[in-house]
Design a protein that fits this description.
This protein has 248 residues and is mainly alpha-helical. The chain has helices at 20-45, 53-81, 87-120, 122-128, 131-159, 180-228, 241-247, and strands at residues 6-8, 14-16, 85-86, 168-169. The strands form 2 sheets. Strands 1-2 form a two-stranded antiparallel sheet. Strands 3-4 form a two-stranded antiparallel ribbon.
Length: 248
C-alpha cells in the first residue's frame, strides 16, 4: 500500500514522493548558482577585478549568496524528507546561515559607501579604499552579521540543558526558538537591521550621490545646449528707416 505522498521501498522504510514544487525550486537554484559561479569565475580571470574594492565586495555578495543557496536548499530537502540530525550539527548550520543572512545586505551597504567616497571624495578614494581596507571591511561585515545570531543563541543557551545537544531533530530555525518572546526579539533585531541599512542606502544614494549628480548633470547639459544651440541673433538694424521717415 502507499499513501498520497509516500511509498514503501524494499527495506520497509517510507520514501516520500518528490513534489513538483521541490523540483521547481531545484531548477531555479541550479540556474542562480550557475549565474553566480560564472560571475565568480569572471572575477578571478581579470586582475583589475580582484584588485578593486567595489569588485571585491561584489564577489563577497556572490560567494555569500552561493553558500546561502546551497545550505538552505540542503535544509529544505532534509526537512521535506524528514531527515534528523544532531542538535550540535544543526547548531553549526544555523550559525552559518544566520550570519550570511545579513552579510549580503551589509555588503551592499558597504558598496554604497564606497561609491559615495569615489564620487564625493575622489581625492581620498585611493587612500581609503585599499586592499587592506577591503579585508578589514569584510571582517567588520561578518562581525556585524554575527550579532543577531549571537543574541539568539545567548538566550537559547540560558534556557536549555546540556543534554539537549545530544538529541536528534529535523533542523530548522524554530529549533532554537523555545518561546514566543524569543521570536519577537529575533524579529525586532532583523527589522532594526533592515531599517538601518535601508536608511543608510537611501541617505547616501539619494541625498549624497543622486541629487548632486543630477544637479551637476543638469548644469552641464544646459551649458552644452547653450554652446551647440545658441539663441538666435537679433535682426540687423541698418539705420535707413528713420531717414526715410524724415524724407517722407
Amino acid at each position: 500500500m502507499m499513501a498520497n505522498n509516500s511509498s514503501v521501498i524494499s527495506g520497509g522504510f517510507p520514501a516520500k514522493r518528490i513534489s513538483n514544487q521541490v523540483v521547481i525550486v531545484q531548477v531555479f537554484i541550479g540556474v542562480f548558482l550557475s549565474i553566480n559561479l560564472f560571475l565568480i569565475s569572471t572575477f578571478f580571470r581579470k586582475e583589475v577585478f580582484y584588485t578593486t574594492v567595489r569588485y571585491i565586495l561584489f564577489a563577497v555578495t556572490l560567494l555569500s549568496d552561493c553558500l546561502f543557496l546551497i545550505m538552505t536548499n540542503s535544509l529544505l530537502v532534509s526537512t521535506y524528507f524528514g531527515f534528523t540530525i544532531h542538535i550540535w550539527l544543526c547548531f553549526v548550520l544555523y550559525i552559518i546561515l544566520a550570519v550570511y543572512t545579513f552579510v549580503t545586505p551589509l555588503t551592499l551597504t558597504a558598496m554604497t559607501l564606497e561609491r559615495y567616497v569615489a564620487i564625493c571624495m575622489p581625492l581620498r578614494h585611493a587612500e581609503l579604499c585599499t586592499m587592506r581596507g577591503a579585508l578589514q571591511l569584510i571582517l567588520i561585515i561578518h562581525g556585524l552579521g554575527a550579532v543577531p545570531c549571537t543574541v539568539t543563541l545567548y538566550i537559547f543557551f540560558a534556557l536549555v540543558s546540556p543534554t539537549f545537544y545530544s538529541r536528534s531533530r529535523v533542523c530548522s530555525v524554530e529549533t532554537f526558538i523555545l518561546s514566543g518572546w524569543q521570536g519577537h526579539v529575533r524579529s525586532a533585531i532583523s527589522q532594526f537591521y533592515f531599517l538601518t541599512l535601508y536608511g543608510m542606502n537611501f541617505y547616501f544614494m539619494r541625498k549624497k550621490i543622486f541629487y548632486p549628480s543630477f544637479g551637476i548633470l543638469g548644469g552641464s547639459l544646459e551649458y552644452i545646449n547653450q554652446k551647440m544651440c545658441p539663441p538666435p541673433a537679433p535682426p540687423p538694424d541698418f539705420g535707413l528707416l528713420p531717414q526715410s521717415n524724415k524724407m517722407l
